[in-house]
Write a structure and sequence with these properties.
The complex is a heterodimer of chains A (505) and B (534). Chain A has 505 residues and is an alpha/beta fold. Chain A contains 16 helices and 20 strands. Chain B is an alpha/beta fold. In chain B, strand 10, helix 12 and strand 11 form a beta-alpha-beta unit. Classes of the chains: A alpha/beta (505), B alpha/beta (534). Chain B: It comes from Gadus morhua.
Chain lengths: 505, 534
């Protein structure tokens, strides 16, 4: 996930004031642009300045109803989408990847404008991973095989992997395009139809992709995209009687609401990718330079706005002081500024609410006795910039060691033994990711086996590939995205059993 | 030599015209054209890729043969020479294997490449074949004698889809982690086998190349490919596209040449780790022997067939007659899957024969470039003579010749669509693979009897059953010894579905996920742990 290709970033066409000419700010239903039934709109804000970029149509329950009807029609037996060869579904996804690759520069600018992440990252990390994810799932479309099964008795038995139906998908604002691809890829490869709600903070790139979905030739109603708010549009999707499955990426708090809504409506299948408080364990034999850099990256990447942020850095006692000193030094060198400046490592937080919440956590950390070693304040008088912040002498019971901050605030803790650190690392309701830095093969295996987390990185951090599944233990979620596992969450298995006169092996 | 080729293949104007001729009713623009070469030789537009040359393709470059030898390639529709091609033999195979070895060395660009990138290269190759599909279809039709439109819609589509399918598999070839007993962590890596020799036939030259290259390259192998001496041109053109797509040098090497020299050098080469062969059962045995005598290279074989097509009295007669007809006559009968033993249930036998003869008589023979042509020539004079000889044996052994039976036309290697009835299982035409447009129709009474007779053969490639009775369909599909069984359809091949033979029809499977296994070595890695937990 680290940007290696800064030199390859194309020159910006419009500096930081992008002329948005290619997208419509409406709801995308049935391959058509529509206003919200209520006529309502909401502003989307540039987090670097706090200024309004534009107003976007705001979907609520009645619009969700329309989108679900469109998706249902697209999914009916005999529809073009249901009759399509699986390989052609794959080809459509490939063409969508090609179109996004073609428009990479524009999409990266738009993403940075709406989200605040450095343009170099949008272009070198977000977009290539979007393209790869869609290509990966394109390839799965005609490889998602059922089985024939040697059932007892005079029967022939086989399974069909069928799409679930209409899938609601609710995605967050931290990686708007990438989260969209993670959701679209497996759902479309397996033949579902989609009603997607994009985060109200970052609706723009998703709407641009809607145009591309239409351009490459997906049939009407297969993908419907609704900008809107969680309590209205999101809740309507989660509680909808005609949505067969819901996939949500966001906070654990909202994840609880989604699962409840499913229970109180139609028991729709639910997959959740939620918060984390991921431990990053540095043993004393690790390569110090690499561990410091990776631990820094693990926490500060994307302004700390990652569900898998390595926000509990456990460092073995004999290297603790040096590690803290080097981490602080690295953090002070982190370049904060205009995200359209190619030297910028660190942009603004997403919005005022997050900005205030993070500053409040920093205050709590100080009050509870952690030692603030650098940062701690707003980094600019406009926009939502926060200084990269490091806390030392953090104890496990402190608020900043237990709650997900979702900001550029690093907590460094000390440990002595492997058994101790394993117990402390697992003492959390979360279980999304973890990492271990060591050269010792036995220690690496001991910790990677014992950690209660859906992903464990060894001597690396934030290494994602479309091929590798991702998801949470415990309250970090349900189900897995990416990889072959990601297809399970969009599939109903049908067992077909046929009576035969005489079975033979 | 090259100039002549370019003039022959200058199809950018003419090929869309061919397609138009079919698609626009009433427009029969090419009626009367004798061959593509005649109709096209006037124009001189270049091929879509400049890189193509009728030479040996090694290390992404064109080479003359070490010996300096060349061989002629003929248009089977006219018997006229198209061009000469450089002829590879053992010395050239050695060169190609060295190139492939270098490409496969640890640390090489090909070995260090992300699997997804291998997939992207294959997808790019598919896109290039699609870009040049009219050109390739013209070349294939000229070299192979198969009707242009069939080539465009069947062969080219099959080629493109196969390459795309395996492109998608490149980063999905999963090893497993294994809950082994004891204090261990065990996992498997699916590694490429290494340098793969691939020897392909002349009946579907381009598609067979795709069947071979797709899984081999998706799995990360390097390839030394020998196309058939009858039909090397499209395969060499594919070499140009391999280079254009950006495959590293040495990953794909293509050597036009003959079986006893180049083919045999591949089969017995000590530096080749695996050989895949599609062709006759007779040569398949030689390949397996050569592997046994040399380095025990892995061998996969896709060989001949004498495939039973079983028609029950309750079947949809129109469907069964047409499918049985296409099942044997498709590609002038030159298919390993040809349904060359039609077993028809007694009550409908006479009717089925009558309708089949009527259909065979209506089959249109003609120039491959004519859009109304259903059947072109056989591949060569040798094949034509062999088919006619087997027809004679059928007559002399007492089968009833219902129609056809002779060579057709003054030039080219055509054979009339031929139907035999009253064929018995012991006749040569009921036992030997004819590989020509000759349909044998036999009679049966019971399910048990037809199963036994269908299986009474050395072959086991494909079979079909036509019935509306689900129990009969299930019983036959379970009982026949064949790698593929079609129910109420025939030749329904697709890149997602494995294909290969029982018994002497081959070893291993091509296409589908199964096809990848034939190009992978599984490595089991077991690591001692201090303390295991589930």
């Amino acid at each position: 996930m680290r940007p290696k290709l800064i030199v390859a970033v194309p020159t910006l066409r419009t500096s930081c004031h992008l002329h948005i000419i290619l997208i419509v700010f409406q709801l995308f239903i049935n391959n058509q642009w529509q206003d919200a039934q209520s006529g309502k709109t909401f502003p989307t804000i540039n987090p670097s300045t706090g200024e309004v970029i534009c107003h976007v149509a705001e979907a609520d329950k009645t619009d969700v109803d329309r989108a679900v009807k469109a998706a249902r029609a697209a999914f009916r037996l005999g529809s073009p989408w249901r009759r399509m060869d699986a390989s052609d579904r794959g080809l459509l996804l490939t063409r969508l990847a090609d179109a996004i690759e073609r428009d990479a520069g524009y999409l990266a600018e738009l993403e940075t404008l709406d989200n605040g992440k450095p343009y170099a990252i949008s272009y070198c990390v977000d977009i290539p991973n979007v393209v790869k994810c869609l290509r990966y799932y394109a390839g799965w479309a005609d490889k998602w095989e059922g089985k024939t099964i040697p059932i007892d008795g005079d029967y022939f038995c086989y399974t069909r992997h069928e799409p679930i139906g209409v899938c609601g998908q609710i995605i967050p604002w931290n990686f708007p395009l990438l989260m969209q691809a993670w959701k679209l890829g497996p759902a479309l490869a397996t033949g579902n139809t989609i009603v997607m709600k994009v985060a109200e903070q970052t609706p723009l790139t998703a709407l641009y992709v809607a145009n591309l979905i239409k351009e490459v030739g997906f049939p009407e109603g297969v993908v419907n995209i609704l900008p809107g708010m969680g309590p209205s549009a999101g809740a309507a999707i989660a509680a909808h009687m005609d949505v067969d499955k819901l996939a949500f990426t966001g906070s654990t708090e909202v994840g609880h609401l989604i699962q409840q809504a499913s229970g109180s409506s139609n028991l729709k299948k639910v997959t959740l990718e939620l918060g984390g408080k991921s431990p990053n364990i540095i043993l004393s034999d690790a390569n110090m330079e690499e561990a410091v850099e990776q631990a820094h990256f693990a926490l500060f990447f994307n302004q700390g706005q990652c569900c898998c942020a390595g926000s509990r850095t456990y460092v073995q006692a004999d290297i603790y002081d040096e590690f803290v000193e080097r981490s602080v030094e690295r953090t002070k060198n982190r370049v904060t500024g205009d995200p359209f400046d190619l030297k910028t490592e660190h942009g603004p937080q997403i919005d005022d609410e997050q900005f205030k919440k993070i500053l409040n956590y920093i205050d709590i950390g100080k009050k509870e006795g952690a030692k603030m070693l650098c940062g701690g304040k707003a980094a600019s008088d406009k926009g939502y910039f926060i200084q990269p912040t490091v806390f030392g002498d953090v104890h496990d019971q402190m608020t900043i060691a237990r709650e997900e901050i979702f900001g550029p605030v690093m907590q460094i803790m000390k440990f002595k033994t492997l058994e101790e650190v394993l117990e402390r690392a697992n003492d959390t309701k979360y279980g999304l990711a973890a990492a271990v830095f060591t050269k010792d093969i036995d220690k690496a295996h001991y910790l990677s086996s014992g950690l209660r987390a859906g992903t464990v990185w060894i001597n690396c951090y934030d290494v994602f590939g479309a091929q590798a599944p991702f998801g949470g233990f415990k309250a970090s979620g349900n189900g897995r995205e990416l990889g072959e596992y990601g297809l399970d969450n969009y599939t109903e298995v049908k067992t077909v059993t046929i009576k035969v006169p005489q079975k033979n092996s | 030599m090259l100039n002549k080729l370019e003039s022959l293949f200058s199809i950018q104007r003419s090929a869309p015209y061919l397609t138009q001729a079919l698609l626009l009713p009433g427009r029969r623009g090419l009626q009367g054209a004798h061959s593509l070469s005649q109709s096209l030789s006037a124009s001189l537009s270049p091929s879509p890729t400049k890189f193509f040359s009728p030479q040996i393709f090694i290390d992404n470059e064109w080479h003359d043969s070490v010996s300096g030898k060349v061989f002629p390639v003929y248009d089977p529709a006219t018997g006229e020479q198209i061009c000469e091609v450089q002829e590879a033999d053992k010395a050239d195979v050695d060169k190609a294997v060295q190139a492939a070895r270098r490409a496969f060395a640890l640390g090489s660009p090909w070995r260090r490449m992300d699997a997804s990138e291998r997939g992207r290269l294959l997808a790019k190759l598919a896109d290039l074949v699609e870009r040049d599909s009219v050109y390739l279809a013209t070349m294939e039709s000229l070299d192979c004698g198969k009707p242009f439109l069939t080539t465009l819609f069947v062969d080219l589509q099959g080629t493109i889809k196969t390459l795309r399918y395996f492109a998608g598999y490149a980063d999905k070839i999963h090893g497993t982690t294994i809950p082994m007993d004891g204090e261990y962590l065990t996992f498997t890596r699916h590694e490429p086998i290494g340098v793969c020799g691939q020897i392909i036939p002349w009946n579907f030259p381009l598609m067979m190349a795709a069947w071979k290259l797709g899984p081999a390259l998706a799995a990360g192998n390097a390839v030394v490919l020998k196309p058939a001496e009858q039909t090397p041109l499209t395969c060499l053109y594919l070499g140009a596209l391999v280079r254009e797509a950006g495959f590293p040098p040495g990953v794909v090497n293509i050597l036009p040449g003959f079986g006893p020299t180049a083919g045999s050098a591949i089969a017995s080469h000590m530096g080749i780790d695996k050989v895949a062969f599609t062709g006759s059962t007779e040569v398949g045995k030689l390949i397996q022997e050569a592997a046994g005598r040399s380095n025990l290279k892995r061998v996969t074989l896709e060989l001949g067939g004498k495939n039973p097509n079983i028609i029950f009295a309750d079947a949809d007669m129109d469907l069964a007659v047409e499918q049985a007809h296409q099942g044997v006559f498709f590609n002038a009968g030159q298919c390993c899957t040809a349904g060359s033993r039609i077993f028809v249930e007694e009550p409908i036998y006479e009717e089925f024969v009558r309708r089949s003869v009527e259909r065979a008589k209506r089959r249109v023979l003609g120039s491959p470039s004519d859009p109304t042509t259903e059947q072109g020539p056989q591949i060569s004079q040798e094949q034509q003579a062999r088919v006619l000889e087997l027809i004679q044996s059928g007559i002399s052994e007492g089968a009833t010749l219902e129609c056809g039976g002779k060579a057709h036309g003054l030039k080219g290697f055509y054979v009339e669509p031929t139907v035999f009835s009253n064929v018995t299982d012991d006749m040569r035409i009921a036992k030997e693979e004819i590989f020509g447009p000759v349909q044998q129709i036999m009679k049966f009474k019971t399910l048990e009897e037809v199963i036994e007779r269908a299986n009474d053969t050395d072959y086991g490639l494909a079979a079909a059953v036509f019935t509306n009775d689900i129990n009969k369909a299930m019983a036959i599909s379970t009982a026949v010894q064949a790698g593929t069984v079609w129910i109420n359809c025939y030749n329904a091949l697709s890149t997602q579905c494995p294909f290969g033979g029982y018994k002497m029809s081959g070893n291993g499977r091509e296409l589908g996920e199964c096809g990848l296994k034939e190009y992978s070595e599984v490595k089991t890695i077991t690591m001692r742990l201090l303390a295991k937990n589930s």
